[in-house]
Amino acid sequence: MLIKINGIDLDYRDQGTGLPVVFLHAFPLNQQMWTDQLDTLQSRCRTISVDLRGFGRSGGSEGTVSMDQMAADVRELLTALGVHQIVLVGLSMGGYVSLAFYRLYRETLRAMVLADTRATEDKAEAKERRHRFAEKVEREGVSSITGEMVSALLGHTSIERRPAVVQRVRTIIESNSPAGIAGAQRAMAARRDSTDLLSEMDLPVLVISGAEDNLTPVAEADSMRQAIKGARLKVIEEAGHLSNIECPDEFSGALVEFIESLKGGE
Ligand code: MLT
C-alpha cells in the first residue's frame, strides 16, 4: 500500500490486530524479506513492514538520505496509521535505523529486536568501500553487485545447501533501483555511532545473530547484549547475516517467544 510520507510515496503492509510489530529490512533488500515472519506473526499481533526510502516500491530522496530520515519516515507512517507504541524489529541496516529511531522517538517504543546488526559506526576504510560500491552500482547497475552481496550476506550453509534462499535473495536485491542502493550505502557510511545509546536502553531488547554471520559476527552481537541492561541473545545456528530468511522458523519462533514475554510483563 502506498502512502505519501515526508514528500515521497512509501510502500508498507499492515496486517493483523493487537500489539503493533514493525519490521525494518536489511541492505540492499526490501520488505519482501519479511514474508515468513509476517505470515507467522499476523495471527498474533499487528504486523507492519515498510520499504525504506529508495527501496522496493517506495520513492527515493532527491539528494542525501540518512538513517535519521528513514527513522522519521517510519515515525510519520505510524502517526498516519494511528499507532502509538510498537515493538521494532530491525535487521542489519534496519537495526541502524532502529537505533536512530530509539534516539529520536524513544516514547514510541515498547521493545526492540536488533538482529544481525551493530551499534558502532564505520571505520574510514569501510566508509571508502561504501563510496566505491555506490559509484559502481550507479555506473554498472544492480546486477553488477548482486553476486558479491549474496556471498557476503548468506552463511555457508545457505550457499551450499539452500538454492531457493540464494535465488530469493538475488531476486529481492534485483527488484531495487541503483539510485536507492547507492543512496543507502552513502547514508550508512555517514551514520553516527550509537554505542552510547546501549547503556541507556531501558526497554526489553532481544539481540539475534546468525551463527555464520561474517558481517556482524556473534561476538559483536554478544557485546551489544552485554551493554544493554537485561537484553537477551538468540544465536541461530546454520544462518548467516540474513538469519530471518535463512532459518525463518527459528527466527520467527524467537520473535513469538519474545513478544509473548512482553504480554506477560504487562
Ligand atoms: C545489511 O545487511 O543491511 C548490510 O550488511 C548493512 C551494512 O552494510 O552495514
Outline of the structure:
The protein has 266 residues and is α/β, with parallel strands linked by helices.
Describe the structure.
- The two termini are 32 Å apart.
- The protein has an eight-stranded mixed beta sheet with strand order 1-2-4-3-5-6-7-8, sandwiched between helices.
- The radius of gyration is 17 Å and the shape is globular.
- The chain has twelve helices and eight strands.
- The chain has helices spanning 35-41, 67-81, 93-105, 124-140, 143-153, 156-161, 163-174, 178-189, 195-198, 218-227, 243-246, 248-264; strands at 2-5, 8-15, 20-24, 46-50, 86-91, 109-115, 205-210, 232-236.
- Helix content is 48%, strand content 17%.
- The protein is an alpha/beta fold and 266 residues long.
- Helix 1 (35-41) crosses helix 12 and helix 5 (143-153) crosses helix 7 (163-174).
- D-malate is lined by residues 26-27, 92-93, 188, 215, 241.
- Residues 26-27, 92-93, 188, 215, 241 line the site of D-malate.
Keywords:
12 helices, 8-stranded mixed beta sheet, globular, 266 residues, alpha/beta
What would you report as the Rg, rounded to the nearest angstrom?
A: 17 Å
The protein's oligomeric status is: single chain
Bound compounds = D-malate
Q: Main sheet?
A: 8 strands, mixed
Structure annotation, total helices: 12
* Sequence of strands across the biggest β-sheet: 1-2-4-3-5-6-7-8
**First and last CA, distance:** 32 Å
